[in-house]
Amino acid sequence: AQSVTQPDIHITVSEGASLELRCNYSYGATPYLFWYVQSPGQGLQLLLKYFSGDTLVQGIKGFEAEFKRSQSSFNLRKPSVHWSDAAEYFCAVGSGADGLTFGKGTHLIIQP
Amino acid sequence: NAGVTQTPKFRVLKTGQSMTLLCAQDMNHEYMYWYRQDPGMGLRLIHYSVGEGTTAKGEVPDGYNVSRLKKQNFLLGLESAAPSQTSVYFCASSYGTSGGGNEQFFGPGTRLTVL
Q1: Which residues of B touch A102 (CB under 8 A)?
Q2: Of A45, A95, A98, the CB nearest to B101
Q3: So what's the pLDDT on residue B41?
Q4: How far is Cα A57 from Cα B68, in angstroms, rounded to an integer?
Q5: Which of A36, A80, B54, B102 would you call most buried, defined as having the most Cβ atoms within 10 angstroms of its Cβ?
Q6: pLDDT tens-digit profile of A9-41?
């Protein structure tokens, strides 16, 4: 069965500092990987996705993620965070029609 | 282009009452999904549909039923609500691709409280 682990429940980062959110997955075939962001009281917005090809994926809002097959990881990065980046971040894996499997999320707090 | 919309946004039920959540999408997507989100649990798939007239069970289907009578609508029903069904419910849709890797578009959510 597929699964996603986000080891960090909460992360606090100073505004302007760099960010890395960790995601590890378990999947039996070629994974399709996603990062979504959820602001308080809102739905989920897709930040970026990996289907195949270049293992470094660029997304919206200055985010990027790197797929590392040997480590079963798909970590999300941003070189300099802004206060507006404070939100809940979800990593997900899936393929075909039968939905996505989400991690439990990482709550990002931005310190001024 | 409204994307994915959900009705209602909020609802409070008493134990044993029934209700239907409506999801609509105007992107001509084949696939639609219902998830629930609970604190510390991420999103979990309840039911999904790969086309008009089809439905399938997800990870946590018990206590819910669904119908997809029209391509653009996906209904989630609670026949006899229980406090354990207090949650935020999200609908999503995707094009559906033969190669897999469906990008899903999410609605704004319905916050349901069962007393």
Answers
A1: 35, 42-44
A2: A95
A3: 87
A4: 35
A5: B102
A6: 999 999 999 999 999 999 877 788 999 999 988
* Residue the block writes with tokens 């429940």: A9
Considering only CB atoms, B109 lies closest to which of A32, A43, A45, namely A43
Within 10 angstroms of residue A60's Cβ, the number of other Cβ atoms is 10
CA distance B1 to chain A (A): 16
- Residues in contact with A71: Cβ distance below 8 Å, sequence separation at least 6, in sequence order: A24
The β-bridge relationship of strands B110-114 and B87-94 is: antiparallel
Contact B102 A96 (CB under 8 A): yes
> In whole angstroms, how large is the CA radius of gyration of chain B?
13
- For chains A and B, what is the number of CB pairs under 8 angstroms? 68
Tens digit of pLDDT per residue, chain B (115 long)? 789 999 999 999 999 999 999 999 999 999 999 999 998 888 999 999 999 999 999 999 999 999 999 999 999 999 999 999 999 999 999 987 654 457 889 999 999 999 9
Task: Tell whether omega for the bond before A31 is within 30 degrees of 0, i.e. cis.
Answer: no
Residue found under tokens 């894996």: A93
Of B42, B48, B92, the CB nearest to A104: B42
Query: Residue holding tokens 């992360």?
Result: A11
Interchain contact, A98 vs B103, CB within 8 Å = no
